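Repro:
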Amino acid sequence: RPWYIQSKANGTLWSNIYPFFTEGTLGVTAVRQVRTITGRFIGVIGIDFNLAVIEDHLSVSSSFTFIVDEFNKLVASSIQGVAINPQDGTQIMTRDCSDPTIASAARYIEDDLGGYARASSLYGEDHVFHMETTQDASFWVFCSELRDGHGLGWHMVFVEPVTCPPGFEYV
């Protein structure tokens, strides 16, 4: 297995995201090499994380929230079930999400802002982006990097509808 070979050579890492076919969800595995006290390699240990658990936590948010990986594919979303292709159980491209708000935000970040890494770096400068959608709605969009030094390179995106008090108009 690729994760075994990579962990044996490099220590601690994350697997690529893959389908948990028995549960119909996506998952990822944290892998770490195991050595004796003298440093002799004896194996690898891994723990699986079901990404549906992350979706459960995101779904309580009042905003649209999603996590995207380094390949611009959905990891998890506040809209349950949209991160996985129902035909084959694989991840979908964020811009192709069946939820129109998430797909619009992905296209906005990827096309207009230069990608998730750039949007995350701008967020560090207190930038919040204004996005107009085809549904004639306005949203605030901001992106934050999730990185751990062991190969995890995700971005979390928050999309919040622009609301104004009665009698006021956003311009």
